[in-house]
Amino acid sequence: MKNSPSQKTDVGDFMKIIACTAVILQSVLSFAMTKHPSINNQIAIGIIYNFIKFTAPVFIFGILYSTIRTTPYSSAADYPNYAKKQYSALIVPTFWWTLIYLIFLPMVQQVNHYTDWKSFLWQFINGNAAPHLWYNTMMLQFILLMPIFWYISNLSKRSGKLAFTLLVISLVIYIIWIEFYYHNVFIDQMKHQWYLLDRVFLSFFIYGLLGVLFVNYRWNIKLLLHKYRWILIIAALLSVILINYELFQFGTPIHLSNAPYYKLSMVAYDTCIILLIATLAFHLIKADNKILPKIHFLSVYAYRAYLSNVFWLVIVWKTLNFQTSNVNLWIIIIVTYLTTSLLSFTSALLLSNFWSTCKKLLRN
């Protein structure tokens, strides 16, 4: 029987699309805060920002889910072929976009700016070339560690009890790490010296593990998610109320940097969002919804769109002179978001086709 395009779509595709579109909005909201909006608008932006503060965990979960689903019996011996595919899909676009940011938009660098070739290289590899590129540094570690995740996947298939034990042990280790980071790095004055710990794989490995285990037990999990979906919605709402309360405890003006991933309330919220997205995805896949082929198509370009989003955001922001514009702030946010999203995905598609054409020409 011939497979329909919708059968290619999986939970991971939904995760990637939702994470990508949300991270673009995060970037836009960060730019909006540079206009020094009123306190009421700052509070509103803070609430929205916290509401979509799930992008990195959802992206990690989605990538691990799709990878394990499409390579269910892989081992370390399969890594060279996997690495070759990731080179074209992730490494090449990451390299070029990082270079573009450092050369053409050096003003968007984080923490420090390069002053010589050594600091240029350091900014290139540490994820500080642009506000969102810290994620690339972290994601590269997951690519390097993929044989370990394959091993965990194969190990967890032996029994549900073993998989549950792996999850509990990992969760305990993760909670200890998050508590250490929150109290000793984020809250303490050490965050300026130890800030690079936010992009160490340990800060997000639990979401990768969840993606792995989800694949192997998705049929059982799907039933549980449907049964307890309302509890998940309530838990997500309570979690987002808590993280907003925590943000506002820092007082005004609101600083979005005070809404970190690395605290237990945010971990709870992000986990709820992952489970709710999975619930929606399972429902639409079961119904063979017409949107599935579009989700799968866009998910292929989600990472590349994510890479370029700050570039296009800067172009739109400067071209329309939004920094000094008197146009209503929310109109600026909506126009900037829609335009940046369109340009990001369009450029991802065009550049991907261009790269494919170049590779064909080089082979001939």
UniProtKB/TrEMBL annotation:
<feature type="domain" description="Acyltransferase 3">
    <location>
        <begin position="13"/>
        <end position="343"/>
    </location>
</feature>
<protein>
    <recommendedName>
        <fullName>Acyltransferase 3 domain-containing protein</fullName>
    </recommendedName>
</protein>
<feature type="transmembrane region" description="Helical">
    <location>
        <begin position="12"/>
        <end position="31"/>
    </location>
</feature>
<comment type="similarity">
    <text>Belongs to the acyltransferase 3 family.</text>
</comment>
<dbReference type="GO" id="GO:0009246">
    <property type="term" value="P:enterobacterial common antigen biosynthetic process"/>
</dbReference>
<keyword id="KW-1003">Cell membrane</keyword>
<feature type="transmembrane region" description="Helical">
    <location>
        <begin position="329"/>
        <end position="355"/>
    </location>
</feature>
<feature type="transmembrane region" description="Helical">
    <location>
        <begin position="133"/>
        <end position="152"/>
    </location>
</feature>
<keyword id="KW-0812">Transmembrane</keyword>
<keyword id="KW-0472">Membrane</keyword>
<feature type="transmembrane region" description="Helical">
    <location>
        <begin position="194"/>
        <end position="216"/>
    </location>
</feature>
<dbReference type="InterPro" id="IPR002656">
    <property type="entry name" value="Acyl_transf_3_dom"/>
</dbReference>
<dbReference type="GO" id="GO:0005886">
    <property type="term" value="C:plasma membrane"/>
</dbReference>
<feature type="transmembrane region" description="Helical">
    <location>
        <begin position="228"/>
        <end position="247"/>
    </location>
</feature>
<feature type="transmembrane region" description="Helical">
    <location>
        <begin position="267"/>
        <end position="285"/>
    </location>
</feature>
<feature type="transmembrane region" description="Helical">
    <location>
        <begin position="87"/>
        <end position="108"/>
    </location>
</feature>
<feature type="transmembrane region" description="Helical">
    <location>
        <begin position="43"/>
        <end position="66"/>
    </location>
</feature>
<dbReference type="GO" id="GO:0016413">
    <property type="term" value="F:O-acetyltransferase activity"/>
</dbReference>
<feature type="transmembrane region" description="Helical">
    <location>
        <begin position="164"/>
        <end position="182"/>
    </location>
</feature>
<keyword id="KW-1133">Transmembrane helix</keyword>
<feature type="transmembrane region" description="Helical">
    <location>
        <begin position="297"/>
        <end position="317"/>
    </location>
</feature>
<dbReference type="Pfam" id="PF01757">
    <property type="entry name" value="Acyl_transf_3"/>
</dbReference>
